[in-house]
Amino acid sequence: MRPPRLSSVIERRLLVNYRVDPDVAARLLPAGLRPQLVRGHAVAGICLLRLGSVRPSWVPAGIGLRSENAAHRVAVEWDGPQGKETGVYIPRRDTASRVNRWAGGRIFPGEHGHADFEVRESGDTVRVAFATRDGSTRVDVTAEVTHGLADSELFADLDEASAFFRDGATGYSATSAGPHLDGLRLHTDAWRVEAGRITSARSSFFDDPDRFPPGSAALDSVLLMRNVPVRWQPLPALSPAVSAAC
Asked: Residue 217 pairs with which residues in a beta bridge?
């Protein structure tokens, strides 16, 4: 059965970005994927995403589901049939939604773990925290909206950061069934992001010294998307080892 295309609204999306040593980032990737470098750094991060009005694209917008979700991601490139392609590799997705956990990897790409979320939003300040039920992952991020992107070593300004993530709208997720990756592409005619400043951030993933030796990963920046209508296009599964030989 062909997976359905879905429509939704990104009610809130925090993109928490780390600059990472390329050799360290490469160790996180399946064969055939390479870190996409920006000013000599690999780019990794956490996407903290609240979706609303999630539904098959042919269903009216007033009907749909709402959920809190998270994805750990690394910006990557690979050799496709038409040349170099770019996107993100997602080693882990988590959600508070029972529907997402059941449907992910079955009728729609993207297996999800089970997590409990705590969200506080007031004015231009957002805090998102979650802990996975399996005890493996904890994240707690607070950010505030600013008028410009400051102190980033990855991106010169907000326009450059926005273009980078807009061009990386293809995501491939790890699966439990084998080496193939589930694929998904985000489409929108209303792409817009706001700059932010991280006031506090903790991540068991990025703070793990075995995964990221001291000095190999540093917080760089945060971007915020709010109230953006999007469509989600399922993609054929990708075998990185095969794609690298194309």
From this structure: 20
- Asked whether the CA dihedral 45, 73, 48, 235 is positive or negative, the reply is positive
pLDDT in tens, 90-123: 999 999 999 999 999 988 999 999 999 999 999 8
- Sorted by where each begins, the domain ranges of the chain are 6-243
Give the model confidence (pLDDT) of 218-245 as tens digits: 999 999 999 999 999 999 998 866 443 3
Q: How confident is the model at residue 82 (pLDDT cuts 50, 70, 90)?
A: confident
Hey, what amino acid is at 116?
D
Q: 6-243 falls under which CATH superfamily?
A: Acetoacetate decarboxylase-like (2.40.400.10)
Query: What's the number of CA atoms in the CB half-sphere (13 Å) around residue 180?
Result: 10
Q: Annotate 20-86 with DSSP letters as a single string.
A: E-HHHHHTTS-TT-EEPEETTEEEEEEEEEEEEEEEETTS-TTS-EEEEEEEEEEEEEEEETTEEEE
pTM for this model (two decimals): 0.94
Residues contacting residue 137 through CB under 8 Å, at least 6 positions apart: 72, 92, 94, 113, 115, 130, 131, 204, 205
Structure tokens, 135: 């005890």
pLDDT at 243: 46
Residue 57 Cα distances to 61, 109, 188, angstroms: 9, 16, 13
**What average pLDDT score do residues 135-139 get?**
97
Closest CA to 50 of 230, 178, 238, 201: 230
